[in-house]
Specification:
This protein is an all-alpha fold and 232 residues long. The chain has helices spanning 2-19, 21-38, 46-81, 85-104, 111-115, 119-131, 138-148, 154-165, 169-188, 191-201, 204-222, 228-231.
């Protein structure tokens, strides 16, 4: 049962990362562009640029994994101490998936208010990242990625609620790893390709299909909570 729930959570996290690509470009597009143009024109070789982008994303996803482990561990402590919280955390994860679907489909933008929760921490971390710029070395890109992984983001917070409900530091880390991997294809594209992808992801039909797919995942998460698996 635990393996089935983890597999479903991993699939949900991966798909959420892929579907949230347009939002990721909006949140991280600026820093990715900065990585692209920090090098002098004579040094902007595709291989070197790709190396900087990979190191940045390695740092960013590493921060997601750390955050997932922390909240998953917290969920484990809470569940062990207060058993009734198991159901509550599971329903909270379903709610966050619904809110994410509403945000991506642009039906309701309330998820943006969740981002305000992390602004206090971000005010302390953001100057550290700024001191690492301009980026000309892979270790600088890694450092900025480690910092930018804590950028307040409603989609990330939604996935962290899913990690919290997993009730395991390991499972929480795995869920955030796959969410990060889902966002990777979008953020590896830069310049004109990124703009074309953003335009595509923002098309009404794609947004609505993405939102409906997330609602399906929310229903799959809620299915055992409602006891429907015992009926069918």
């Amino acid at each position: 049962m635990i393996q089935e729930l983890l597999a479903m959570g991993v699939m949900t996290a991966l798909i959420a990362g892929l579907l949230g690509g347009g939002h990721c470009i909006g949140m991280c597009g600026g820093i990715v562009s900065a990585l692209s143009f920090a090098l002098p024109p004579s040094q902007r070789h595709p291989a070197r640029l790709l190396g900087l982008l990979l190191m940045y994303n390695l740092g960013r996803i590493s921060s997601y994994v750390l955050a997932g482990a922390l909240v998953g561990g917290l969920g484990q402590l809470l569940v062990q101490s207060i058993q009734p919280l198991v159901q509550l955390l599971s329903w909270l994860a379903v709610l966050m998936l619904v809110l994410m679907a509403a945000y991506i489909g642009q039906w309701w933008m309330g998820l943006l208010k969740v981002e305000a929760l992390g602004k206090g921490l971000w005010r302390r971390l953001e100057p550290i990242g700024r001191r690492l710029m301009p980026v000309t070395h892979p270790l600088q890109a890694l450092g900025i990625g480690l910092v930018w992984g804590w950028l307040p983001c409603g989609l990330v917070y939604s996935m962290l609620i899913l990690a919290l409900s997993s009730g395991s530091a390991l499972h929480g880390a795995i869920l955030m790893l796959f969410f990060g991997l889902g966002t990777l294809p979008t953020l590896l594209l830069t310049g004109a390709l990124a703009q074309q992808l953003m335009t595509y992801l923002r098309q009404g039909f794609w947004r609505q299909c993405s939102a409906l797919l997330l609602l399906v995942f929310a229903l799959l998460q809620a299915w055992p909570l409602l006891g429907l698996n015992r009926i069918f």
